[in-house]
From TrEMBL:
Full protein name: Mutator family transposase
Biological process per Gene Ontology, one example term: DNA transposition
Domain of life of the native organism: Bacteria
Signal peptide: none
Role played: Required for the transposition of the insertion element.
Pfam families found in the cross-reference section: Transposase_mut
Family: Belongs to the transposase mutator family.
Keywords for this protein: DNA recombination, DNA-binding, Transposable element, Transposition
InterPro entries: Transposase_mutator (IPR001207)
Gene Ontology molecular functions: DNA binding; transposase activity
Length: 366
């Protein structure tokens, strides 16, 4: 290999009248269980670059990408080092693996800061809590994710960001930050019923309709009643929140919900809190085309992504910093966006035309 590079430089110098040889620089290369001591030829101008060195660099970059992929799949740096010893014949320390795995950090950061589409049919927002080390203490911190549905029915993660706690004001800031990256219109925001979240959404995107997660409210209500009454309550909830064949409008659904609450509140006074006007947002999905209602009445999509986050994180007891968590979660989100989320959801095929009237009605109500 040294001889090959030496003769390659001779050809380079002979073909360039103003070039001269300028010695060598040493380099060690590990491949397939062997260590090679190389002497890299140099030219006076520095323009000579051996073909072999390019191949070595490509292999190093591929190895870094492999380590990054294994790391984001949940393997620890120690496990990746052991795999490297078996495959490449060289054991890497945990620090070396961490450095190589994070060499793709710039790609992830560029992806997180990329320009976004001007229009999203629906946006799902949710936060998950992860043990994070900060100021020599480990505590659960909130990591916010925003998932959007594009006009063609494909999906993409718009942002992954950290705040120590989850709150409506933080969500307002993150939604407003989307405008700085090119987002002009969001038709529908799907979220849980966090206190004040409706004000945050309205402040950031006044024309957006807002859907509270139905799965959450069903779970909360069933958790408030006795085991004996759960079957009857569950059956009535399924009638209050119909899907697909539903021809009711949101105000009709909310009216049935109030009737349901009034029926059970005498026995379970805790249910009275669901008579607040903001709870009408649980029925926004009824004003949208029947074929997409199952896709927009819960935050299941983003919660499924949160579970992928947790599977990756749970291999580690706690993360050394919030930046490390962001990198890991964003790498998972980036892979999902390029693979699973790239497939178009057929239910959204005719959304743009069919939901135009529904969105206008929501705007008038506001």
């Amino acid at each position: 290999m040294n001889s090959l590079m030496f003769h390659e430089r001779e050809l380079f110098v002979s073909g360039n009248a103003h070039e001269q040889c300028n010695g060598f620089r040493p380099r060690r290369w590990y491949s397939h269980g062997f260590e090679f001591s190389l002497r890299i030829p140099r030219s006076r101008s520095g323009n000579f670059y051996p073909v072999l060195l390019g191949l070595i660099r490509n292999e190093s970059e591929e190895r870094a990408r492999l380590f990054n992929l294994l790391y984001t799949k949940g393997l620890t740096t120690e496990q990746i080092g052991e795999i490297s010893d078996c495959v490449y014949g060289r054991a890497y320390s945990k620090q070396q693996v961490s450095h190589l795995a994070c060499s793709c950090r710039d790609d992830v950061e560029r992806w997180l800061g990329r320009s976004l589409s001007s229009h999203y049919l629906a946006v799902y927002i949710d936060a998950t809590f992860i043990s994070t080390r900060r100021d020599r203490q480990v505590s659960k911190e909130a990591y916010y994710t925003i998932l959007g549905v594009l006009e063609d029915g494909s999906r993409e993660v718009l942002t992954v960001v950290n705040h120590p706690t989850e709150g409506a004001l933080c969500w307002k800031d993150e939604l407003e930050a989307l405008r700085q990256r090119g987002v002009e219109q969001i038709d529908l925001v799907v979220s849980d019923a966090l206190q004040g979240i409706e004000n945050a959404v309205c402040a950031a995107f006044p024309s957006a309709a807002h859907q509270f997660c139905v799965a959450h409210v069903k779970r909360q209500i069933l958790g408030s009643v006795s085991h004996k009454d759960k079957p009857a309550v569950a059956q009535q909830l399924s009638e209050v929140f119909p899907l697909e064949n539903n021809e009711m409008k949101s105000f009709e659904g909310y009216g049935q919900f109030i009737t349901f609450v009034e029926k059970w509140e005498r026995k379970y006074p805790a249910l009275r809190r669901y008579k607040a006007e903001r709870d009408s947002a649980y029925f926004t999905y009824m004003d949208f085309p029947a074929q997409v209602q199952r896709c927009i009445y819960t935050t299941n999509w983003i919660e499924r992504l949160n579970r992928k986050y947790k599977r990756t994180i749970n291999m580690r007891t706690s993360m050394p910093s919030e930046k490390s968590v962001i990198f890991l979660l964003a790498a998972v989100a980036m892979e999902q966006t390029k693979t699973t989320y790239g497939r178009r959801i057929y239910q959204f095929k005719s959304w743009k035309e069919k939901n135009k009237k529904a969105v206008e009605e929501q705007r008038k109500e506001r």
